[in-house]
Amino acid sequence: MMKKPIVAIMYDFDKTLSTTDMQDYGFIPKLGMTPDEFWGATGEFTKKTGVERILSYMYMMVYLSKQKGIKLTKKELNSMGKNIQYFPGVETWFKRINDYGKSKGVKVEHYLVSSGTREIVEGCSIAKNFKEIYGCEFYFDPETEEPIWPKLAINYTQKTQYFFRISKGATNQGDDTKINEKTVNRRIPYSNIIYMGDGMTDVPCMVLVKQNGGSAIAIYDKKDSAGIKSLLKGGRVNYACHANYKEDSDLDKTIKLIIDGAATRAILNAKTEALQKRALKLAEEEK
Fold it and tell me: Which of 145, 172, 188, 201 is at a distance of 20 to 30 A from 180, taking alpha carbons?
């Protein structure tokens, strides 16, 4: 019996699934600030201290919350995911794509790989659709329940490790042994991995996926599509699609074609393997 192929879709979050940065919907308004003010302060902190940008925004979340008297517990951060707004069709996307994959004999798995805040994502309406959520996390003091240290920070180049983790099935972040072991039989072949991101900040992962035979898709809002042209011209992505996740959109059709390709490869590989076994058997019988 042919083993059912798996297609893994890796997603960025901010401006790929959501219309803007996840902190803009609930966290920043609670501070009484505008997004420009918060991200501007984060940029200034990075410039002044040399702290890496992702660590800077995590620091500023904690620092400014204390200044404003906001108890930034995990529960509070979860609640800030409830008002996230998505591009058209996102909330029905996952089931539709899963069902399409099933109709083609393909299992589809969804993975979020974001430089955003995991605790916010966990409170959003689409969190349940991801097999794994990888994002920046805080370590919370067991007594005060407030964040006291970054547990995990994922910048743009660090995203690339999850391509290998997902392919190998080494999805436990605490297991560094399996990710570094030489793997003969990968759980998901590179060719069956798709990465979807919104632009230049996703380039390292896009290039890695494309160079290894997977599919890199640049997602763009029609209001801001200039950077996408350079990605296409530079050969850094396979496809560019408007941020429309509705049925029969360009993105919907592109993903379905990639799933079709995975299904076809699985059939061809199974037939090739069967023919090879038959040839070896005949060779043994002729001895």
Answer: 201
